[in-house]
Amino acid sequence: MNRTLRFTRVAPCRPTFSLLVRPHITRQQPLRTRWQATEAIRRKSGLSAHSSSIQDERLTVAAKAPISTPSTSTSVPPPTSDSTESITLDATPAPSLKPVNTKEPQARFNEIEVQHISDQLHQQIFGAHRPKPVDERLVDLAKKHLDIHDLLGKQSAPTKPIGFVMPKLVGESLDEHFYKLGSYTGDPWLGYAKEFAQKSIPLLPPKWNVKTSGWTKYGPDGKVIATKCQPPEDEMLAFDVEVLYKISPYAVMACAASPTAWYSWVSPWVLGESTDNRQLIPLGDPSTKRIVVGHNVSYDRARIAEEYSLEQTGTFFLDTMSLHAAVNGMCSRQRPTWMKHRKNKELREKLSEGPDPELAHMIEQAAQELEPEIWVDHSSINSLKDVAAFHCNISVSKETRDMMGEMKSVEDLVPKLEECLAYCAYDVKVTHDVYKKVLPRFLETCPHPVSFSALRHMGSLLLPVNRSWSNYVANSEAIYNGLVTKVKSHLESLTEQAAALSFGMMTKKERTAINDRIKAIVEKSVEATEVYDKIVAEENALLGKPPKTRRSKASKAQAEADAEAGAGIRLELEPAQTKKKGRPTKKVTNQGDGDAKEKAEALNKLEKRKREAKKRVDAIADEAKTLQKRLDDDKSLADQKIKNIQQYPWSKENAWLSQLDWEGREVRYKKQKKPTDPLVPYAKQKLPGYPNWYKDLFKVSSDMNISVRTRVSALMLRLQWDGYPLVWTNKYGWTFRVPNSEVHRYSQTPMVQCDALELIKETNPHVATDEQAVYYKLPHNGGKDARCVNPLAKNYQRYFEDGVLTSEFAQAKEALDMNAACSYWISARERIKSQFVVWENKEIGRDMGFDLQQDSGAQPTSLAAHSKNLSAEPGSEQSDRNELGLILPQIVTMGTITRRAIENTWLTASNAKKNRVGSELKAMIQAPLGYCFVGADVDSEELWIASLIGDAEFKMHGGNAIGFMTLEGSKAAGTDMHSRTASVLGISRNNAKVFNYGRIYGAGLKFAASLLRQFNPHVNDSQANEIAGNLYTVTKGIKTTRKALAEKPFWRGGTESFVFNKLEEFAEQEVPKTPVLGAGITEALQKNHIGKGAFLTSRINWAIQSSGVDYLHLLIVSMDYLIQQYKLNARLMITVHDEIRYIVQWDDRYKVAMALQVANIWTRSMFSQQMGINDLPQSCAFFSAVDIDHVLRKEVDLDCVTPSNPDPIPPGESVDMEGILANEEARLPLEEETIAAEKLETIKYTPRVPILEQLAKQSRSNIYQMKAQIAKEDKDLNRVIKELRVEAPELVRETSRKGKGTAYDPYVWSDEGTDSWDYINIQGLPIKNTNPQENYGWNIPAVSKPQPSLRKARQHRKLVAEM
Question: Using one digit for the tens of pLDDT, what is the confidence trace for 764-822?
């Protein structure tokens, strides 16, 4: 169940500790009788009457009197005499400065029937006086607005009012309350921070101690005061650590500086005093309250020993990177431009060193491409090098850091230890210099003490783990490798089959066997030839012939010359060698007859052996020739097949094979001694006989490099799109080929056709010369300009399931499933495996405080048993106590311009999915025995904030359509925001959420159309634009310019028109500020630093997301106060945007759940009051549920089953507000408050004017402008303008003409001068405009008004008649 995007009301049912699903009352009456149905429900439930009667009337003519709304005063009235017993959490009245109404809580409704918090809660939060009724004109306007959008009367069923005695507010208003909470919880750290920013640190010591490990202290003069001393005890430190990351993630050195001393720390491992490199840095007494300043200080915090404890230390880690991002950061759209400017600046600096014509040309060209941007000089990226250059004009060299990064052993560090310490200390000095600049700017930009105080907890997060963490990593890696190996085996098999075409019909086994046989024959041939030659040599010896010797070419030439010169002499010397004509006979030396006979017999035997040897040599040669012929015949057959592929590339069988490079199949053979010798290939050839495409798979190693990400895999799997083969093109990526005769199938589809002029440039000749077909791009989530490079990516899995993307091989679906299953682990494995985990080890004094002394049992046995099961080694015996450890997530507390925290693993971790290996990551964060996790998700946090901005225009909750849908909309009835969007677009409700949040964050029509094509690939561009346009017309409305009503264009007629008009008004301020805590925008997005209308989307996004950060900070500070006030054993564990989780001692779990609900209602009420509405809807006052769990997960009932975690995790516990109130263990000890009231009373508070009220004074809005924003049709808008002219001509806004020939606008008319008139503030009270804005209206003589042409005059008369 997804609670994040809807509100769940508390129904009057029996308390339960499971997720409560509350049925809605069935609506059987039509819309027009909804009010009667509501009245019937109220009477049947015994609820009190609503605060004002609701009349379903048409909008009446508005008067000119100012709109009256309640004041923001929240003073508590004198106690009432009614002392009826109340259904509260306490049995006894809570101690309070002022008595609380303890009678039965009564339900309350506003003028449009939105149920508010009970009178009992309203008295404790906003004061006992009931809010004054909203001006009737605004009520009527809200009704008409809701009626236009078919929402009027479609409320959810009323619910039982909730009442209980809350912890009392600190002060007379919510603003004072939170100001004092922020000041109290931020003390003394805020004072230390300001003081440290005003002080200097001593000069750097000239020499560093590198002979002893541990801490060394240096005096103001730089001399060593003490070695192996205690850790720094100063209350203010600038701090930095250095690591040899290629060897170990633990620190090897650190430096710190205070206003009075310098400190250095060297690891005992570096100096050989210990063989253990896992050395943490001691920082002294953890209870000491101090600030530690660093750049990306969370990295340094993870190396501090005292931080690895369940008990939070007194150290406040202040991050200069975060402070810079909040004050001078840049949005993602600005970063590329800034990088170009920096590169150009570096080129200019390089040119100043000496003339370089080529460099000067590059600079000139770059300068022409870059337009001047003022904001570039008011921002920088977040690295210390760039931040120091920006704020302090300091140059920081990172050569030493790079040198340390290349070290592969600690021995490399020892001779350069002092140099590295000096580098570390210089970073500390630079960090402090930056801090002195950015802290004052941050406190000016974010002045509310809550914005500072919350950073202490945001920078001190921790995540407990046990042995299951190691098993999780090992199991995920093993399953991933198994899946990859299996799919790779299939792909290798298909690849070998395709490669076999290079060798005809033979299999690789047969071909290998023949080649091996030929090699063996060659060896036998050599052996047989040697035997034959030996026999011949013996025969020659008997005959007296000299042995044959191989002569060189030179000796042969000399022999021929000698032969010509002395032929006669040789003939005279050898007369006996010539005989009579006839058959030659072997000459035998004249010996005895016996010897001659023996020699003759020997010769006969040799002759016989010679014939047998010759026969063997011939037989071997014949066999080799036969085998070689088989290979040659097979190669000829292969050549015919390859030729067929080239001749008919787009046949059914060849469409994929023709895209491969079949060249390179030649085999190089050794030179034959005789023509009859077998062909012997060279030994060091790479895959002889195989084509180039196959050889490319072995470039990296001797193993085939093929996977689902290899391009050739799609061809081996013979992938098709709608039955057409996939074709790779360099220009368009993967495409599919459609014959010309079938192109009509795609004429009305969003498929992008490839340009034929571009295709002729393709390297594949079959594509470049193909005139028989048209190529279409495969769709891509990135839009029509993006190209698909891997059709086996997880984004294409749905096309396989829909039968659009197909293959004749089952392995294709298996490969796609594997890729989808492993996608999470592939992307996150390095980040997960590199997590810095520190394990508890009491033997060396590393006690993390996991032990819990308690009388009662800790967690339920099922949870404890599962915890043991998760952490048990496969096949091992589980010990009584798990191995315990902590991870300190390295979070940048304000990593973006919206002040959102960033971290690359835990803040981006997805929920567990059944088909994703390793996706159970968050569930591996497990509470130790005796503890649990308590937390909640803020229901539709940023959507509610946006809708509240629109409701503020009507001075009531739900007055704006988006506000009504957010508060009262029902998924079942189709009246919630996501259901409405889904019906307009024809998509699922879950997909509609993406559209809604993107639109609220400022995304435009192009985004919506692109997203729609992604969700529905059968929609073409024109259809997508039309549907998206309809959505924006229904939601944002129509952008309209009417100078008579407003100076600037405005949205009208949509459900969200009021919201976007106000958001754009926020964004267009000189220095936009969040409406609740008044946090300012970064300088890079301030209006005077950017062009007109530039980065509007980013500024709107900032207004919403930064307000969401304000919400989180208010919640954190409230919890900090309540935890201290009632001594709850809990601390903040992690926050993920709108999620918040605490690690809590088991016995305090329900009290912390109650504290979370109190903190939430305080925070929501603060937002409402600062928006000008002194009330709060009951539907959003409380968390829909508070989760109590033993593992970290989105919902307590997620079993977190994945391929790497097949065993389901038992569910946790989820309690709603009713369950909490019914549980005696949830009772906060209000009578045992530990914070002295005097401490809070001494905090001085100065009331401030709400930001929205300040904006209202500037905007000078009036009732007619609101009517115009409601107008859906042009005739309605014209009617509003007519009413304005008739009823309030002094409110007509006009501007002076510019230039000659300005067309006469019949909607704008002038009068003499500008009259002062009453404007309304945020509460709807009048503001007398005694000093009208200069040039606010026209001062134009009557004669200057041009006469309209005859045609325009007729148009004007027709328009007036329509009015």
Answer: 999 999 999 999 999 887 777 889 999 998 888 888 888 899 998 888 888 888 888 89
Query: Strand pairing partners for 1319?
Result: 1327
What is the rounded distance in angstroms from the CA atom of residue 529 to the CA atom of residue 614? 8
Q: In whole angstroms, what is the distance from residue 1203 CA to residue 916 CA?
A: 7
Model pTM score: 0.79
d(CA 1082, CA 897): 6
Contact 376, 345 (CB under 8 A): no
Reduced to 3 states (helix: H, G, I; strand: E, B; else coil), residue 702 is coil
Q: What is the DSSP string of 378-393?
A: G---SSHHHHHHHHH-
Is the separation of the CB atoms in 290 and 192 below 8 Å?
yes
List, as own/partner pairs, every contact residues 804-807 make where C-beta atoms lie below 8 angstroms and the sequence separation is at least 24, other chains included: 804/721, 804/722, 804/1017, 805/719, 805/720, 805/721, 806/719, 806/720, 806/723, 807/717, 807/718, 807/719, 807/720
Beta strands in 568-628 (DSSP E): none
Distance CA 926, CA 924 (A): 6
Domain locations along the chain: 29-166, 199-328+383-445, 335-378, 504-544+591-647, 720-790, 944-1104, 1251-1362
* Rounded-to-integer distance, Cα 1000 and Cα 1007, Å: 12
Starting at the edge strand found earlier in the chain, the sheet holding 1139-1145 runs 1130-1136, 1139-1145, 931-937, 1186-1189, 1213-1215
Angle (CA) 457 463 468, round 5° = 175
Helix (H, G, I), strand (E, B) or coil at 108: strand
Query: Rounded CA gap, 1114 and 1140, in Å?
Result: 12
Closest CA to 1031 of 1049, 1048, 1015, 1044: 1015
Task: Report the 3 state secondary structure along 91-106.
Answer: CCCCCCCCCCCCCCCC
Helix, strand or coil, per DSSP, at residue 1328: strand
**E runs forming strands in 1190-1331:** 1213-1215, 1318-1320, 1326-1328
List, as one string, the DSSP characters of 736-802.
Answer: EEEEGGGGGGGTTSSPPBPPHHHHTT-SSHHHHT--SEEEEEPP-TT-TTS-BS-TTSGGGHHHHHT
- Contact in structure between 933 and 1142 (CB atoms under 8 Å): yes
- How does strand 251-257 pair with strand 262-266? antiparallel
CA 791 centroid distance within chain: 23
β-pairing, 290-294 vs 315-319, is: parallel
How would you label 45-69 residue by residue, b for 16+ Cβ within 10 Å and e otherwise?
A: eebbebbbebeeeebeebeeebbbb
Greater confidence, 795 or 1330?
795
The C-alpha atoms of residue 1211 and residue 1198 are separated, in whole angstroms, by 7
- DSSP per position, 258-290: -SS-EEEEE-TTTTTS-S----PBP-S-TTS-E
pLDDT tens digits along 579-627: 444 444 444 445 556 677 887 888 888 888 888 888 888 888 888 888 8
Rounded distance between C-alpha atoms, residue 983 and residue 1031, angstroms? 10
Measure the CA–CA gap between 118 and 42, rounded to whole angstroms.
14
pLDDT digits (tens, 9 = 90+) for 1153-1206: 999 999 999 999 999 999 999 999 999 999 999 999 999 999 999 999 999 999
C-alpha torsion angle, residues 484, 487, 490, 496 (rounded to 10):
-50
CA atoms within 13 A of residue 76's CA, in its CB half-sphere: 22
Q: Which tokens go with 995?
A: 């559209």
Class of the CATH domain delimited by 199-328+383-445: alpha beta
pLDDT band at residue 1311 using 50, 70 and 90 as cut-offs: very low
Instruction: Tell me how far the alpha carbon of residue 318 is from its chain's centroid.
Output: 24
Residue linked to tokens 């009617």: 1279
Which amino acid type is present at position 582? Answer: G
User: What is the C-alpha to C-alpha distance for residues 369 and 350, in angstroms, rounded to an integer?
Assistant: 19
- Measure Cα distances from 1029 to 960, 962, 985, 1009, 1273 in Å: 21, 18, 10, 8, 16
